């Protein structure tokens, strides 16, 4: 699906283990792995526990095609199943960074939790209301939720999640000093990550086995990867 739909951004809202039980399968490799005719390589992983964000960067190559694609994986670790995060601003910060990366892209964004209903629906509701408010100056939560539920039954499972979406959008447009400062902090952390990636040389891990043999590590690969990543930050971040 990621390759077929040319998805460049993935937002993950669940954790691999929740309440001591497996919740989501780990669908990415620690280094390089073949999934059928798709080769996935994890280029980097950076954790920001103070804002509950983890950012991973992958390259994808498909057998029989030329070149590769970059996928950025935004993982929010602080959202409990059937509940809401303790901090709305951390979710707003996540949405801000997802939107800032490749802002002109019209390709779909993959958003998931475990069931694809509660957490996923809540963040989609928040994001769509923020974008509508920016474009039209109005929001209509009930209308939007009804429309979403035509496409996905029971999306936004709990009353608390619906209220959370309302309050989060309100926080953003109230533009309080706390909100402005927090979002600036998130921006700084993500920019620091981007700068760190430029200082790091991506080299293939050792002992990858058969999958590694299928990857064409051209001499221009590092600069090409960095150039592709940089397109997501037109402001020079």
Automatic annotation (TrEMBL):
Pfam families: Y_phosphatase. GO terms for biological process: motor neuron axon guidance. Residues 89-163 form the Tyrosine specific protein phosphatases domain. Its EC number is 3.1.3.48. Signal peptide: none annotated. CDD domains: PTPc (cd00047). InterPro entries: Prot-tyrosine_phosphatase-like, Protein-Tyr_Phosphatase, PTP_cat, Tyr_Pase_AS, Tyr_Pase_cat, Tyr_Pase_dom. Residues 1-172 form the Tyrosine-protein phosphatase domain. One of its GO terms (molecular function) is protein tyrosine phosphatase activity. Keywords: Hydrolase, Protein phosphatase. Belongs to the protein-tyrosine phosphatase family. This is protein-tyrosine-phosphatase.
